[in-house]
Amino acid sequence: MSYERSVSADPHEFSPETVWEVQMPAIRVGAGAAGELGYQLDQLGTTGDQRGLIVTDENLVSLGHVERIVDELDADGFDVDVFANTEREPSISAVEACIEFVREEMGDAGYDFYLGLGGGSCMDTAKATRAVVANEGELLDYVAAPTGAGEALTQSGAPLILLPTTAGTGSEISPVAILSVPEKNIKEGISSPHVRADAAVLDPTLTTTLPPDLTAKTAMDALGHAIEGYTTHRYDDLLRAEDPAERPVYAGRTGFTEMLSEKAIELLSSNVRRVVNNGDDIEARGAMLKGALFGAIAGLTAGASLAHAMAYPVGNNYHTYHGETIAALTPASTLGYNVASDPPRFEKVAKMLGADTTGMSTREAADEARKEFVSLQRDLNVLPSGLNELAGITADDVGGLAESTVESQQRLLRCNPRPVTKEDVEEIFSDALHNWE
Ligand SMILES: [Fe+2]
């Protein structure tokens, strides 16, 4: 396993990173924020009489959210088309269909603006479509090798605004669009600052229709981003980047990301029971959206780690939802194996999750984070008790899963605060089969 750019460099050559940065779209948050889309588009330089595209799915059309946004834009003089054929965990061909739709309707120049309305799948489809139309050519030109040609994007294109209807994925602020390659059972991405949206509009009234199980699953993903970001290595544990363009996307935690993680863990863990039990609780839905946003900025800047690395092979092979996979893996990985990397830090996580650690040693208190997280999951009553209940995974499967994690997820494993071998990953998978009986 390679640890280049890590603390294991020769101490005589070690020159720590001294610079950090945060990149994000313009962000508008709160009940009614979606009603200000016309103003938002004006701010991005798009004026009325322009034609835009809403990328969404059939479910959001039938729930009435799409009509509401179309009416809002119509009242402000914008003309919009709707592409509602987005797939869950979109495949390359599903995104190609959206690009094709744009070119058929508007020619190579594409639309004057784009909106992605929905969960991570709709937002990622919108991001990839806008990027490919702006840069010309085909989707596969820009998908990471070996699936695609891995060409660099050079243009951002027409304005893109994302409106999440779940609170979890963080796609609204991330520079990545994830695409599935069903014939290879893998996921690939297009990753570039040009993929990031220009604006994110987080309106809790768009999230009230999310059913309890998806609410809980996306919340676990959001908590994963916040906790993984809070417990990963520091930015100055890395070697200084000679060229700013070489600085990694997952650059380690900073005082800024820690502050966001802390607020995210608190908001998410104290409101998730409310939204799962009463989806119409706008105040709690708003808190969840904010928690997910803060967690995403923290986690996706500092870096996700072990649970996310292990989640990809599980999702690819068993077609599970990302959030429920993170839910099943987090106790054994982030809050199990990784605790030894920094017990005082995990003691803080335990307290943020609501644990009473009075009279405990630091290590005992750190271990409470896992117990508190599992007890939260059990209260929600819609999450799997581990990988076995999630997808029928047994002890016979953990060797293969560990192998594909180590083979394909070095980018994330390198961010893990505690070094991991294939044998470690195998043990963690075994530990994650049953989080409770
Ligand atoms: Fe995630």
Task: Give the helices and strands, then pairings.
Layout: E1 26-29, H1 37-43, E2 51-55, H2 58-62, H3 65-75, E3 79-83, H4 92-106, E4 113-118, H5 120-135, H6 139-142, E5 160-164, E6 176-181, E7 186-191, E8 199-202, H7 212-231, H8 255-277, H9 282-302, H10 306-318, H11 322-329, H12 343-352, H13 362-380, H14 387-391, H15 398-408, H16 410-413, H17 422-431
Parallel strand pairs: 1-8, 2-3, 2-4, 4-5, 5-8
Antiparallel strand pairs: 6-7
Helix pairs in contact: 4-5, 7-8, 7-9, 7-11, 8-9, 10-11, 10-15, 12-13, 15-17
The structure holds fe (ii) ion.
Fe (ii) ion binds next to helix 7 and helix 11.
Instruction: Name the strands of the widest sheet in spatial order.
Output: 1-8-5-4-2-3
Number of strands: 8
The outline comes out as: globular
Oligomer: single chain
The CATH architecture of the largest domain can be named as: Up-down Bundle
Beta-strand content: 5-15%
Gyration radius from CA atoms, angstroms: 21 Å
CATH class of the largest domain: Mainly Alpha
Structural class: alpha/beta
**Domains, number:** 2
Largest sheet composition? 6 strands, parallel
Domain Fe-containing alcohol dehydrogenase-like C-terminal: 254-432
Keywords: Oxidoreductase, Transit peptide
Pfam family, one: ADH_Fe_C
Domain Alcohol dehydrogenase iron-type/glycerol dehydrogenase GldA: 26-204
